[in-house]
Amino acid sequence: MTDERRHDPAHDPLDLERFLVTRQRDGDLDGMLALYEPDAVLDVGEGHVVAGLDAIRAYFADAIESGQRYAIGEQRPALVSGDLALTSTRLPDGTVTAEVARRQSDGTWRWVIDRFTVG
Known about the structure:
By secondary structure, the chain is an alpha+beta fold. It contains three helices and seven strands.
């Protein structure tokens, strides 16, 4: 049986974090990747940067396979300027994330930069 999940796009930059956590917990790797632009970069900490969808796929596949479950945090209001948005979440352990999203030509949003830990 093939996986025919429907991946709702983010119509608001604040949808992205919720979609990422939900899809990761569901093991929906394709749904996670749908939240990123093809040339997106992830700063996953300790000086490690993951660039492009193939590398992002491998990183998230490892996280899912290891049984890791992303935490739901307190999302801050997005700061939007034109077609760019800065999003941020404070996780339960106090970690703060920061992301840059870009509005797509169809009005939906995708992340371009995702930094898992700020400071």
